[in-house]
Amino acid sequence: MDKDIVILSQTDTTVGFLSQNAHRIDKIKARLDGKSYITALPSFSSLKSRTAIPKKFRKYVRRANKTTFVFPNGESFRVIKDKQHLLLIKRYGWLYTTSANISGKDIDLEFAKNKADIIIYPLTSHGKSSTIIKLGRDRKRRIR
Question: What's the rounded Cα separation, in Å, for the pair 47 and 71?
């Protein structure tokens, strides 16, 4: 599988770009290099293999739905539970995920379709973004 492709797909929350190449997404979104993306993962066990989950919040993270977690190391992850979106994530193992728009603008499906290498239909919802929770060792704080 080509790790440089950008996929336009319905995610568990909204229509989004997905890729394993953050620089390609940066160019499409006209976003500054170095700003991190959410990494979509297929399971809680794959999350545990990538970062340390504060013990106090393991059950909370495992049960969360449509929630992105920013961990003490600064990395952000979301475990995908939506069946359709999960099929895509499992195929690649993990993908960076972001809304299908120019940074700071509303979603424009025509723009997104022109920029993506692969389009997975149906593109049905411009739904609500995921909740973002920042986890510390002892506290959690809602960011969005």
Answer: 11
Burial grade of 14 (CB within 10 A; 0-12, 13-18, 19 or more):
buried
Per CATH, the number for 7-142 is 3.90.870.10
Q: Does 1 score more than 70 pLDDT?
A: no
Within 13 Å and on the Cβ side, how many CA atoms surround 2? 7
**Residue 76 pLDDT:** 96
Element (H, E) at 92: helix 83-92
- So what's the pLDDT on residue 25? 94
* Pairing mode of beta strands 95-99, 76-79: unpaired
